[in-house]
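Record pair follows.
FIRST:
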Amino acid sequence: MVAIVTGASSGLGLSIAELLRSRGTQVVGVSRRATSDVSGDASKRETALRAIEAAERLGAIDLLVNCAGVGIFGPVGSYDDDAIAAMIDSNLIATINFCELLFPRFKEHGGTIVNILSTAALIGKANESVYCAAKWGARGYGEALKAEAKGTKARLIAVAPGGMNTPFWPELRLGFMDPDDVAATIVDAIERPVDISELVITRR
């Protein structure tokens, strides 16, 4: 199996990439950091094309995990143009960007797309208005992909995790989940032969 994982340099994306590798999947990690397999902005078509080229050198691509994301929080009225653009680009446009390039081939040849959303894609949250907007947009895009995937070889999994202790947050948060545990649930779903189209992952 050959996979592309965006947001792969830290947090949940890193946990997913490492777990996939440990189970024999060849992974091309994408992030803004120079230490990634492919360094660049996941919302840019040029970055996605370089990632696909790198993955194709390993074999046929059959898994895409869209995990790139950024969070900037505060009350309505506190967001400037840069903050809004950063969240829309990272949480929504990056997902669309990679799906636009890989979904058509997955429909024909087979492949799985995992879109990492958030519980913020399911319910509105105070001080998270723009983040919710981006995640709801990604969820809506994914639902449209599912409709187009019917009768094809493409498989879609939407994942809505609750809070995790990752670099997304500046300090450790009590009661938040370990990203390694969340990654294990996601990778298990990918590998199961049954159809799992949606996962909501929260702490017990």
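SECOND:
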Amino acid sequence: MKAHRLYVGTVGEGVFLSTDHGRSFRRAAEGMFVECDVRALAVAPDRPATLYLGSEEGVWVSHDGAESWQCLLPLAGQAVWSLHLAGARLLAGVCPARLLCSDDAGRSWHEAAAQLAQDCPRIKHTRVTAIVHDPEQPEHCWAGVEIDGVHHSSDGGRTWRPLGDGLSSRDIHALAVVGGPGPRLLAATNNDLNCSEDGGRTWQPAGIDQVLPWKYTRALTQLPGRREVLLLGGGDRPPGWEGAVARSEDGGRSWRRVRMPRANSTLWAFAVHAADEALVYAASVSGQLYRSEDGGQAWQKLDVEFGEVRALAWAPVGRMRCDQSTPLMANAGGGGAESGS
């Protein structure tokens, strides 16, 4: 295994860093509130030492591998639930639901034009849990809102419109763009994985409970350079008492459950990087960490456990350049209330 840095975003304990493949961790919050709620992490594709973080205090950046932090976007009374990088464009999804856009890697920001529902029973406020773009058409982006369905932008995130006929639920937890003429999209929800062949205009449930014991799906990611290979994290409920991972090698058309130790709750987050497509980390929402060295086919549990984990990322040590059009960090945050969220 090559040298790398593993980042863990927790609720109430800030961000932690491991430089020994997850054997030990130390808190890495110099410059920001040490006990913040970290719900989003994203590594800059061409700068492994640059890491973006979303918390209840806004959007932050570190240029030295989480050794120190600077605030890019203060957001009093609002929390960042998702971050997405596409070249120099940085998109932030907020709770109550808003979409904020930067075209210069976070130095300046503007609010996107989007009509997003703000209030929701049981979870109080809606939140933008997922943002993705199509690497073949970078101006096309999709955002998932908990609980307000899927929204689409054709201008790089500046303006958005709702879509999504046929979704089994408007409670969106994660999104993936598989590709193809449609393009083909996947959406993890509270009551099934959903598939679209036409860019998100229409959807069909996948029947994931034929593979996993439950319909509740949460985390979704693709292996870098192999968009047709996907990993799906699920569980019995939020936060739940059990979780598992399913893997697809055909763009989400078929799935199989993979071998892993029994998780103590729903699998909530994955971390991948183009530096090593076979190395994948996963986290359960109730604090357990797992590592796979074969692209998510088999997993081992790490010894260290946290209270609540909502975000993961890893990056190689040293300089590395790779395709900026490839989204390297898939993260979804979401409601822990047992309300179907």
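COMMENT: The chain is about 0% helix and 45% strand.
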